[in-house]
Amino acid sequence: MPIDAKTRDGYVRYAPSFSQTQSATTVVAHPYTAEAVAKFLGFVKQGSQQPTNNFYAAFGAQELISEGYLTEPRIKGLEITKLGEVVAAVKRQQNLSFSMDCNSGLLQVAA
Questions:
Q1: DSSP SS3 for 91
Q2: What is the dihedral sign for C-alpha 63, 67, 73, 74?
Q3: pTM of the prediction?
C-alpha cells in the first residue's frame, strides 16, 4: 500500500510492528498507516472513508499490546466501546497519540 506523500511521519508505522514509536532502522521497511489498513479491510465510515471507531479501538489495543502497555487477558471480553475507553486511557497515561472524546465515545488520532 503506497503512503501518500502528504502523510505526517508520526502516522507511519513499519510492518510487522503496530507501534508508531519503533524506528524504521530496527525493522524491515514496509511502511503503512492505520488509515490504509482500515481502508484495505473495509472498516471505514461511509462518505468520509475514515476508519471506524471500532477499528481505532482494536488497532490501538493491538498497538498497546505489542508495546507492552496492555495484555490480552486485561481486555478479553470487553465490549468495543469499553475497549476504546481503555485504549484511550492507557494512551493518555503514556502520552501517546490516540485520544478519546468521552462525550461522543469517539476514538481519534490527536494532531
A1: helix
A2: negative
A3: 0.65
Rounded Cα distance between 45 and 29, Å, is 29
Interatomic CA distance for residues 86 and 89, integer angstroms: 5
Residue linked to cell 524506528 = 23
How far, in Å, CA of 71 to CA of 111, rounded?
Answer: 27
Higher pLDDT, 83 or 107: 83
Report whether 38 contacts 52 (CB < 8 A). yes
CA distance 96 to 22: 13
- Cβ count within 10 A of residue 72: 9
